[in-house]
Prior knowledge:
Elements: E1 8-13, H1 20-29, E2 35-41, H2 54-64, E3 71-76, H3 80-86, E4 91-95, H4 99-115, E5 120-124, H5 135-143, H6 154-164
Bound molecules: coenzyme A.
Coenzyme A binds near residues 21 and 25.
Amino acid sequence: MTRSNPIVAIYPGSFDPLTRGHEDIARRTLRVADRLIVAVAHTSTTQKRGLFSVEERVELIRKVFEDEDRIEVESFEGLLVDFARGRGAHFVIRGLRAISDFEYELQMAQMNQELWREIETIFLVPDVEFSFLSSSLVREVAALGGDVSRFVSPAVLEAMKERFGG
Ligand code: COA
């Protein structure tokens, strides 16, 4: 898509690490947006133990999308809506893997709307082959010596092997 006022989407998350499911959602977004900013949050609504630092996650995600110049990767602190406004984003992208994601996603989308009326959230559905994936499951399987090569990109796999000494 090429237009004078490009449509910019933001895909926020903790991405610790980015999985193939996240990657699928990011690439699908380019069917409905001209540019995508993958935004790694310093503050996640569900506090989690970190495997990679935010800076490491940003670097890894940049490597995964180095073939796609319409995807940028940044981290942000504070509220997502403030970051989105500052970047001139038109909407937030979130993935819906299963019905169990819906309630939490609806709450976040509505809270974001309360905080900034202009923001829209668009939900995309990942390929069914990724619908069971989550970063914490991938972390756990890798930490216990399991093979996660089907679930993450080679750059992420390499970094996980180094982290877990595999
Ligand atoms: N493929 C694989 N996994 C996926 C996925 C997909 N397509 N979509 C979601 N997930 C998983 C993630 O891996 C993550 O798994 P984990 O819990 O095992 O780590 C889980 O689903 C949800 O994580 P994520 O999508 O990263 O969301 P989050 O809950 O960590 O982060 C933010 C939510 C960052 C968007 C939210 O906290 C935020 O906006 N923070 C900024 C502060 C703010 O504005 N707060 C008010 C929000 S209303």
